[in-house]
Automatic annotation (TrEMBL):
Organism: Occultella aeris
InterPro entries, per database record: EctD, Phytyl_CoA_dOase-like
Name the record gives this protein: Ectoine hydroxylase
E.C. number: 1.14.11.55
Cofactor(s) of this protein: Fe(2+)
Keywords: Dioxygenase, Iron, Metal-binding, Oxidoreductase
Chain segments carrying region Disordered: 279-302
Superkingdom classification of source: Bacteria
Catalytic activity from the UniProt record: L-ectoine + 2-oxoglutarate + O2 = 5-hydroxyectoine + succinate + CO2
């Protein structure tokens, strides 16, 4: 894409434009596939279309969950991994908070990222082959796990990665039991049907801060109150081995974890191969490869 192309392209989802805040209808499908194109039935697809997310009671078995824990422990104790930019460490406790790019650096997490149980569902929702836009393992330790403020992932991926449209889906696979009190995922059901353009501008190298604490791209309190009044909040509890898939534009957040019970999950983002990245829409340059991949090789096909 040339500089002229970037200058002249139409941005359907403007954001971070000098104080202009708008709520815009989604204007695009939520579910692109059908019941005939994947493992999920029409009722499940209709529920995802309405709420913006779906829950899977058990996606992986106890042996796989144990393997994930061993691999997270290995990565967390590896000095090279801890020193890598792809590893986010809690400043106060020095505990590993996230390890990004795990489908590239870990054979264990590469397998689940390319597993038909996951990829076939992503293909069905997005109606095409999919590639991995981002992957990570998150760990929210007991007493120390920090909160993450309300946001839409698509706003960031559009502004800073150049994702053109809302044709991406995330899956969070639980490695621990998620209770209402240990900082689980919270979603405003139905919020995926409206896009919030946010205030301000994208700071230089914003990703360094946003991977730890959402700043730029956070909606105003007034807009969030309105969304809460209209959509409410679902707190997504569930057992280890379960999973949640949610649309890229869902308004979501998580509380801090002040309980003794840790929480960890494998998080993978799939984007349609028909929705590959362009130049960022509201940032001077793209985020690093580990935050927004430009390898569009279809998942599950290697």
């Amino acid at each position: 894409m040339t500089a002229a192309d970037v200058q002249n392209r139409i941005d359907a989802y403007p954001t971070r434009n000098d104080g202009e805040v708008k709520v815009i209808p989604r204007g695009a499908p939520v579910v692109w596939g059908t019941a005939a194109t994947g493992p999920m039935d029409q009722r499940t697809l209709d529920g995802f279309d309405a709420r913006g997310y779906l829950s899977i009671d058990q996606l992986v078995g106890a042996d796989e969950v144990a393997e994930f824990h061993r691999e997270l422990e290995r990565l967390s104790s590896d000095p090279e991994v801890r020193a890598d930019e792809r590893c986010v460490i809690e400043a106060s406790s020095q505990e590993v908070r996230s390890v990004f790019d795990v489908h590239r650096i870990s054979p264990v997490f590469a397998r689940i990222a390319n597993d038909p149980r996951v990829v076939d569902r992503a293909r069905q929702l997005l109606g095409s082959e999919v590639y991995i836009h981002q992957s990570r393992v998150n760990f929210k330790p007991g007493f120390e796990g920090k909160e993450f403020m309300w946001h839409s992932d698509f706003e960031t991926w559009h502004a800073e990665d150049g994702m053109p449209r809302m044709r991406a889906v995330s899956i969070s696979i639980s490695m621990t039991d998620n209770y209402s009190y240990n900082g689980p995922l919270m979603i405003m059901p139905g919020s995926h049907r409206e896009y919030i353009s946010c205030d301000g501008a994208t700071p230089e190298d914003n990703y360094r801060k946003s991977l730890v604490m959402q700043g730029a791209g956070t909606p105003s309190k007034e807009v969030l109150r309105d969304f809460y009044d209209r959509y409410g909040i679902d707190v997504l509890e569930g057992a280890a081995g379960g999973a949640v898939m949610f649309d890229s534009n869902c308004m979501h957040a998580s509380n801090g974890n002040v309980t003794p019970t840790p929480r960890s999950n494998v998080f993978i983002v799939y984007n349609s191969v028909e929705n590959t990245l362009e130049e960022p829409f509201s940032a001077p340059r793209p985020r690093p490869e580990f935050a927004g991949s430009t390898d569009f090789t279809p998942a599950g096909r290697v």
